[in-house]
UniProtKB/TrEMBL annotation:
Keyword vocabulary terms for this entry: Hydrolase
PANTHER family for the chain: ADP-RIBOSE PYROPHOSPHATASE, UDP/ADP-SUGAR PYROPHOSPHATASE
Lineage of source species: Bacteria, Bacillati, Actinomycetota, Actinomycetes, Kitasatosporales
Protein name stated in the entry: ADP-ribose pyrophosphatase
Originating organism: Streptomyces griseorubens
Pfam families per record: NUDIX (PF00293)
Domain Nudix hydrolase: 44-178
Domain of life: Bacteria
Keyword Transmembrane helix: no
């Protein structure tokens, strides 16, 4: 058996979009089940996202603390953002988010992991990058607003983040997946064996 996710699409008899928001929408599909029954499946339609695990020479990760209203918590996260520019390269978006949220640039970029955040209720796909060779970005800092105006920045050792994840103290999915993927890659074939930054991404096709 090959352990690999594969594309598949069951028949859809009808679809409705009862809500359209600024960046996402809700959709209801009438999906034909294997036994022939037709059921309704509600889910959020999402443009996709990128996230950046930025690792400095002292083995610290650039993290930020931000209020997330749906869960009523301030979460420690890695820089991330929406793929809301049609056709934009995920790598270009990741570079932008690292600059805007941390005012940092990186020389070496790799793909750590590609994930669906909540595939039972949302079609959001996230590409998590590893960025190394960090330095301060040139130019003015990005003007922040709303939740980002209250954002805190820090650099935290990888080992401390791993302990926080396993202790149940850190919950952001991109941080959790990114940090544990980093540790797994190190114990496997090494970070230089990770996929290149422009590797194909079938979940969100793009032009390199």
């Amino acid at each position: 058996m090959t352990i690999k996710d594969t594309p598949e699409e069951w028949e859809i008899r009808g679809t409705q979009t009862p809500f359209v928001g600024k960046k996402t929408s809700m959709r209801t599909d009438e999906v034909v089940m294997p036994g022939g029954a037709v059921v309704h499946r509600d889910y959020q339609v999402h443009p996709g996202s990128v996230a950046v695990l930025a690792l400095d020479d002292a083995d610290r990760v650039v993290v930020l603390r931000q209020y997330r209203h749906p869960v009523r918590q301030k979460l420690w996260e890695i820089p991330a953002g929406l793929l809301d520019v049609p056709g934009e390269s995920p790598l270009h978006a990741a570079r932008r988010e690292l600059y805007e949220e941390a005012h940092v640039k990186a020389e070496d970029w790799r793909v750590l992991a590609d994930v669906y955040t909540t595939p039972g209720g949302c079609d959001e796909a996230v590409r998590i990058f590893l960025a190394r060779g960090l330095s301060e970005a040139e130019g003015d800092r990005f003007a922040v607003e709303d939740e980002e105006a209250d954002m805190e920045l820090a650099r935290v050792p990888v080992d401390e983040l791993v302990r926080g994840v396993l202790a149940g103290d850190l919950h952001n999915n991109c941080l959790v997946v990114g940090v544990l993927s980093l540790v797994a890659a190190r114990s496997g074939d090494g970070l230089d064996a990770l996929r290149p930054a422009e590797a194909p991404w079938p979940a969100r096709p793009f032009e390199a």
